[in-house]
Amino acid sequence: MKRRTLLATGGAAILTVGAGLGLMPRNQQTGLLPGAATAQDATGALPEVLEMVQGNPMANLEVIEYASFTCPHCASFNANQHKLLKTNYIDTNKIRFVYREVYFDRPGLWASMVARCTDNPDFFFAFSDVLYEEQRNWLASGDPAIIIEELRRLGKTAGLDDAALDACLSDAAKAEALYTWYQENAERDNISSTPSFLIDGENYSNMSYDEFAEILDEKLG
């Protein structure tokens, strides 16, 4: 179950898509923004990236999920395994669950910037559910302009107004901070596919709920 190599099919497919869309080098990261022409340039120190945490922040057992909002396997995990984990382990305060985004493509970063618009974990996780549930719809066109409009539509449905969305989607400093954070996390934790997990510091690839629960129960003793 522990990952020793890249996931055979799903991971490779995701990496291929990511490579095709391409993420900019750090000195060109404003190009990641949908409104790059009018975005404010990132200057000075980058803002701190807030960890998105569910469950008991003081729990002895930490689970970190690495996922992309554009990853179909991540959407499936969110709809199935995560819901059971939330009921049985997160809401019962048995574990500290951390969600970290992976940016293999621009739409994944844009979705993350809308989800993090308020920097409120409750909003983030609720909006993450919407992003995954509506994933096929907002990504369907493959057209960046339409994808942005779809993300704005979802953001408005969640209570964000135009001013908030404009500010979030043109924040070059936040975009650079998120991308740098992703790169550092991926390199440190050997993340090359999604979803991936660190459970008590050990790497695991995607798995069923029963397999997940068996690992957690063993570590919880």
UniProtKB/TrEMBL annotation:
Residues 51-218 form the Thioredoxin-like fold domain. SUPFAM superfamilies: Thioredoxin-like (SSF52833). It holds the Pfam family Thioredoxin_4. Coiled coil: none annotated. Keywords: Isomerase. InterPro entries: Thioredoxin-like_fold, Thioredoxin-like_sf. One of its GO terms (molecular function) is isomerase activity. This is Protein-disulfide isomerase. It comes from Yoonia tamlensis. The lineage of its organism: Bacteria, Pseudomonadati, Pseudomonadota, Alphaproteobacteria, Rhodobacterales.
